[in-house]
Amino acid sequence: SPPPPSRKPNSRLQERLLKKLGQHAHPFYFTIPQNLPCSVTLQPGPEDTGKACGVDFEIRAFCAKSIEEKIHKRNSVRLVIRKVQYAPEKPGPQPMVETTRSFLMSDRSLHLEASLDKELYYHGEPISVNVHVTNNSTKTVKRVKISVRQYADICLFSTAQYKCPVAQLEADDQVSSSSTFCKVYTLTPTLDKNREKRGLALDGKLKHEDTNLASSTIVKDITNKEVLGILVSYRVKVKLVVSRGGDVSVELPFILMHPKPVEPPVSRPQSGEATPQNEGKLPVYFAYLTVCVSILWLRLQGELDDDLTDLSCFHICSLSRKVLVSMKTVR
After folding, report:
1. Domain spanning 96-198+215-257 has what CATH number?
2. What's the pLDDT at 314?
3. Which of 2, 102, 165, 294 lies deepest, with the highest CB count within 10 Å?
4. What b-and-e string marks burial along 284-307, b requiring 16 or more CB atoms within 10 Å of the CB?
């Protein structure tokens, strides 16, 4: 029967797969709600076993003769996908913070001002921290400590917060009484130096792929935390170690994300093909699932070879990957 009028037009890839696979291929599309959490995983410790805590998504497809029929694992397939956020096109203002500290039995103070060169950083990009100290007190600043900290608010079964340093720097820069000091420090937070830290938030990954530190979570409406999963944020902490006077510190929030990928140019649609605004919405995932569903449908109809009747879901997925490789020539 013809599709309903409200159905979304098929993409070029879907049209080509339909021609290749025939009547047992069933195109589909879906939209992920904006309020769903991003794919984030908490890094397990070296001795932890079992599945890591985190948020992930998967698409499941199955074949049955009726809706009421029990779904068997051998007649279903699943595909893990990620929900990601990319950096905003317009970053916010340059982070800057200052504080003044007075000491006991002294009417003079120590002033600390710190700033970042920008608010938005991409993964692997160095962070420049500008530190300016005006020491009018009688104390001496002995050292300067700078660290990049990741904060992960866990809003799943219970609420908790993990705080983990991902880059640290300590300098023996001294600021004597009645003097000023100005210097730019550079740190680069990466996963390579933090692979054994338990509870560190990482971007969700697909199988056999490496990942990175979790990207900052950008939330428009933070009132409903029950649907947010794991909220990730970053701050740079600047601390002055003062002799016999305690520490003076400030924090600078910033955003760490991936840039938005550049979309390839869209070719002019031909007769029966999708319009440019619908182009490329479903990548290889659709092809992969279409092949899986086609194989399952053939099994249900008894049209598969006898040698395939005892294959597990994993083997079906492996078979579909091989079929998908041969289909790439259709593009």
Report:
1. 2.60.40.640
2. 36
3. 294
4. eebbbbbbbbbbbbebeeeebeee
